[in-house]
Give the backbone structure.
Amino acid sequence: MSVLKRNLIAIALGFIVAVLGTIIHQSTTGPEMPIGLVMALAMVLFAATEVRTMGPQKLPSLLFTITMAITVFLAAQDLTGDKLIPLGETGLIWSYGSIAIAILVGAFPRFEQSN
């Protein structure tokens, strides 16, 4: 896979994960069970891991994280009179936790498999 293709996939995946996570992070199954937040953060973890394993360079992980951060930041703004990420516990965990997970996965050292 070419470097340009990997980078474009990382950007697209960062945008898609941020939008989907923003949509589902508020879903609950009860008063104390934020299942949507758990699913959204797990989606970030799996997508960031997939981007990290696409190649030896760390640029796709960086692009994934930057795209996610920008998208989540814009979703939290009051540009049209309606916020997609309301201020509250789940909103704050989603906003900061998703970006922290993406950064940690991207910064984690790569382990080579020995045969």
